[in-house]
Amino acid sequence: MSAVIEEHHDDHHDHKPTGIGRWLFSTNHKDIGTMYLWFSFTMLFIGGALALVIRAELFQPGLQFVEPEFFNQMTTLHGLIMVFGVIMPAFVGLANWMVPMMIGAPDMALPRMNNWSFWLLPGAFGLLISSLIMSMMGMGSAPNFGWTFYAPLSTTYGPDSTDFFIFSVHMMGISSIMGAINIIATIMNMRAPGMTYMKMPIFVWTWFITAYLLIAVMPVLATAVTMMLTDRNFGTSFFDAAGGGDPVLFQHVFWFFGHPEVYIMILPAFGIISQVVPTFARKKIFGYSSMVYATSSIAFLSFIVWAHHMFTTGMPVATELFFMYATMLIAVPTGVKVFNWVSTMWKGSMTFETPMLFAIGFIFMFSIGGFTGLMLSIVPADFQYHDTYFVVAHFHYVLVTGALYAIYSAVYFWLPKWTGNMYDEKLGKVHFWVSTISVNVLFFPMHFVGLAGMPRRIPDYNMQFAEFNQMATIGAFVFGFSQLILLWNVVKTIRGRSTVKATDQVWEGAEGLEWTIPSPAPFHSFTTPPTVK
Amino acid sequence: MAAEPNNNQAANRRVIGKLLLTVVAMFGFGFALVPLYDVFCAVTGLNGKTGSQVADFKNMQLDDSRKIKVEFLASLNEQMPWEFKALQDSITVHPGQPAKVDFIARNKTGKDMIGQAIPSVSPGIAASYFQKTECFCFTEQLLKAGEEKVMPVLFIIDPSISEDVHEITLSYTFFIKPGTEEAGSRVITSSVSKTLANHTK
């Protein structure tokens, strides 16, 4: 079948299209995956720069560098960019690159839609970031209501740029939904002969489930911003108490999206770790089917826990108890996963190349984030922790040392396959250790200031929190700049001048279809489907 | 992918069709949360939404074994130019004991205006036990230019209220009835107009 596709390409270009058109009009899953990953990497540095503005301001109590109004814009855009611009596109990029190669498909099922999914993103983020640029030029505020954009902060009191934000979220949503449809269609219809569902690599499984989550909740996010849009511009009162609406309703709609969203950002990470750990432990993954069922259970539970973000809004005790127990229940399938990874390593012949270091770092630090999450799920404790730096510490442990570390692990793991060159192992290890030490200096003290009552999203704080905040700021700058090591390593690997050529299998313990094709992976792979036994 | 065999293309179409349907359904579900939420709040009495009807209190027994402090708040919607306050800050009552409290409103403007007060009870759990037998919030209030009016509220707390409730706050917010705002000088946002349309029907 794909002979025809290649012929189609050959009509217009050589084997591989050249110039800017190669990227603009690309329907190739590898090129689109690459664009997603570079987009995400760019956004990481932009979002990171905003985080450094926040940490610089918080180095000392009192106001140093920025006005509170600008500080609010920093926290808002940092959150939005990191969630929607870094973590999600990076995972979609990895899915684009790896899912077809892992299931033995020549490309994604819907390559043209794939192109559109990606190219909506620069538009969406261009729009969002333009509001910040306009703000810096003195033309009104950028969104300043926090990434959760609670009404009425974002409706009655939102700046004019809120409408930019709304449109931008609509575009991101359409992009994610199309990406998810594409991934589901690919996995359902394009698996190589013999690859049954229960033979799919775990990364493919986790993305399969994540894609369903995206399809279920991104439309609800679109609903929330659409209601905001009509409240702001067309006289409705969904969230305006003065008009018979209710701001608490906003939180319900938002978190109905928002909680599955946090699993959208972590399930593919679980998938990556489930690929990396067996490779470097040189053992098959322990409990394959329990991994699949655990992932599905987490996805199901994610729909019935949203109100644990809202314990302080005044809910009946019965409701609070329900959401508390449902939330605690998530620790069970998550624990199954962690134990499976540990059991996979048990008695394995382990080596500690960079992907494995990031994977072990993930397991260790994600578990810390998981435990603080469990603490936050306890209603009476949550009353104390709510909106403090403890929450900030919690979700940065699961998102930075969780999701982001998994992405790093994946990049180091598959980069030799993508480029045909081994990355610089020494630089990789330096990157891991500098990042891991600094990220803990950055986020660990936040637990303490949070427990002591320091509120999040405030540019000033009480003197007693000064030392821990200074530690966090130092950690932040080291962590931020140490990501340049990764950039340098990636650039160096792509250039491939001073690096070793990668073999097809790349890693001694690597198993799976993606390691059977040459390194670098050819522009068109699996033009004839392989047979899986 | 035009070059795919037909069976794969048909399979893709089926998948896309189903998934797009799910997307549309979930978009609709987001909006369906609005009425669902209202029903949920009406059933549970959440959010302090009290009845706007005259309550039936014939079968209530006085429970003089405990006392509940009722505090009063009077506030104005941002567009409302009146003065509005409660004559007492709080009173203490037994559950089942009828009580009366006066609020006072003054139209400071030079124009006749109609207002509507919207009640809210906190904690939300107490809302469905807080029964008003007479209230200025049941009807629109006409105040002539410069007029001051004392408006009573008669209420009774249902004795079946939880033993844990020791304090209740009753809050009123006064809104302008649309079309009766001060001549020419005020811009009433459409949201406020809609509010009133909702609450005064």
Low-confidence stretches of chain B: 182-201
Distance between the termini of chain B: 56 Å
Q: What's the oligomerization state?
A: heterodimer
Biggest sheet features of chain A: none
Write the H/E string of chain A, N to C.
Answer: HHHHHHHHHHHHHHHHH
Tell how many strands the DSSP assignment of chain A holds: 0
CATH topology of the largest domain in chain B: Ctag/Cox11 (Pfam 04442)
Treating each run of at least 4 consecutive H or I residues as one helix, how many helices of chain B? 2
Q: State the separation between the terminal residues of chain A, measured CA to CA.
A: 22 Å
CATH homologous superfamily grouping of chain A = Cytochrome c oxidase-like, subunit I domain
Q: Could you spell the SSE succession of chain B in H and E letters?
A: HEEEEEEEEEH
Q: What is the CATH third-level topology name of chain A?
A: Cytochrome C Oxidase, Chain A
CATH architecture of chain A: Up-down Bundle
Largest interface: A-B, 46 and 44 residues
Helicity range of the residues of chain B? 10-25%
What share of the residues of chain A lie within helices? Answer: 55-70%
Model regions low in confidence, pLDDT < 50 over at least 5 residues of chain A: 1-14
* Beta-strand proportion of chain B: 25-35%
Name of the CATH class of chain A: Mainly Alpha
CATH architecture field of the largest domain in chain B: Sandwich
Structural class of the secondary structure composition of chain A? Answer: mainly alpha
